[in-house]
Amino acid sequence: MDDAITIRGLRKAYGGRAAVDGARPRHPHGGGVRAPRTQRGREDDHRRDRRRISQVIAVAFATSTLLALATGGELDFGAISVPGVILMLTIFVLQGVAFGLALLNTPLAIVGALVLPTVWTILASAFPTVAKVAVWLDLNQVTGPLVDGKMNGADWAHLATGVGFWVVLPLAIGTWRVLTREVK
Q1: What is the pTM of this model?
Q2: Is the four-CA dihedral 168, 174, 179, 180 of positive or negative sign?
Q3: Which of 28, 33, 144, 178 has its CA 20 to 30 A from that of 97?
Q4: d(C-alpha 174, C-alpha 20), whole Å
Q5: What gap in Å lies between CA 87 and CA 135, rounded to an integer?
Q6: 161-183, pLDDT tens digit by residue?
Q7: Is 137 in contact with 120 (CB distance < 8 Å)?
Q8: Distance between CA atoms of 93 and 51, rounded to whole angstroms?
């Protein structure tokens, strides 16, 4: 009777009553556990993700176009300078990179890049002596003429000083820290 196939033995081998009584047997890696992903499976996931992102962008573009047509609106950059906005955004991205390099800690760098300029702006609006320095160092203030497209010589000097303080200085500190730290 040792070699005989019994229902109890089948149930034990295939994982319970449902597996023996007509349902699909369980996967050999365990009940409900999927086999490890293959390289092709990961590539399919990436393709699917890129397709979803493209679909979201297409839907957003179509929706904004339909809303503009329905309301009679038109795209007008009259009050802002598009190259100025691009340069401003580049400066703020470089500021985030510089803080990341200087602090070598991503969460702290994100908080620092968002909080420190905001605190500086609040201090400049609260204290007149800080406001005199803020004309030169507050990135929000020195990028204003850049976005408006009304930069003159003094504005370029203010922008260079602010970028030097908030971007170049942390970038230099961070580069030094990365180059001189011990390899782990």
Answers
A1: 0.59
A2: positive
A3: 144
A4: 64
A5: 19
A6: 999 999 999 999 999 999 998 87
A7: yes
A8: 27
